[in-house]
């Protein structure tokens, strides 16, 4: 490491020359070699530097620093707290991402639950519909054959339910028909075909 004084400096062009007692010639120095210093150089500054040879054979100063002037990287050291900011941002992003995933999973779970309920309800309706008998015209015709209509005589307005239950208590077949169709606990239609007192020879 060499030591010398900044002999000249051209601020507008950003370069100058260093004079050192141990070097034969003044050494060229460019502002880029001092960009890490907290202020720009000025004539009379003590410069510590190394010497490098350029491609054109000329020498220049490198690894330079100004005596008594702080370097920018040292000035940033007390502000290391700022370095934690990205970590806080990262943590915040992580928390946001985690909450977002939880919310997404919750929404998917709710939608799945609703879908399952709807499907179950649909299946129940399908099963109900599949087990519900469909009555066709043929069924109606068969029903009419099995259960013939009972014609109630027009003069039934003269009959009243008075507790009688047996054919022997009836005065006519019409009265018996009225009783089995309108009165409880009758015992006159054993085969349930709607034709009471079939064996009663009185009618």
Features:
NA-bd_OB-fold, transmembrane, alpha+beta, Cold shock domain-containing protein
Q: What is the compact description of this entry?
A:
This protein is an alpha+beta fold and 203 residues long.
Explain how this protein is built.
This protein has 203 residues and is of the alpha+beta class. Among the domains are: 71 residues, Nucleic acid-binding proteins (OB fold (Dihydrolipoamide Acetyltransferase, E2P)), CATH 2.40.50; 69 residues, no CATH class. The chain has 4 helices and 5 strands. The protein has a 5-stranded antiparallel beta sheet with strand order 3-2-1-4-5, with no helix packed on it. The longest helix has 47 residues. It is rod-shaped. The relative contact order is 0.07. Keywords: Membrane, Phosphoprotein, Transmembrane, Transmembrane helix. Pfam families: CSD, Excalibur.
């Amino acid at each position: 490491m060499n030591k010398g004084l900044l002999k000249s400096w051209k601020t507008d062009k950003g370069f100058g020359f260093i004079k050192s007692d141990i070097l034969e010639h003044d050494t060229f120095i460019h502002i880029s070699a001092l960009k890490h210093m907290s202020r720009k150089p000025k004539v009379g500054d003590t410069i510590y530097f190394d010497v490098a040879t350029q491609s054109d054979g000329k020498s220049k100063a490198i690894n330079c620093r100004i005596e008594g002037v702080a370097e920018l990287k040292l000035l940033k050291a007390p502000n290391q707290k700022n370095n934690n900011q990205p970590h806080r941002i990262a943590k915040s992003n992580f928390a946001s991402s985690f909450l977002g995933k939880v919310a997404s999973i919750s929404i998917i779970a709710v939608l799945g639950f609703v879908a399952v309920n709807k499907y179950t309800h649909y299946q129940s309706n399908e099963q109900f519909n599949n087990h519900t008998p469909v009555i066709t015209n043929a069924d109606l015709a068969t029903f009419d054959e099995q259960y013939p209509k009972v014609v109630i005589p027009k003069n039934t307005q003269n009959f009243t339910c008075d507790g009688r239950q047996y054919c022997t208590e009836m005065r006519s077949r019409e009265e018996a028909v009225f009783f089995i169709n309108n009165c409880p606990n009758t015992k006159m239609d054993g085969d349930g075909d709607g034709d009471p007192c079939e064996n009663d020879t009185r009618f």
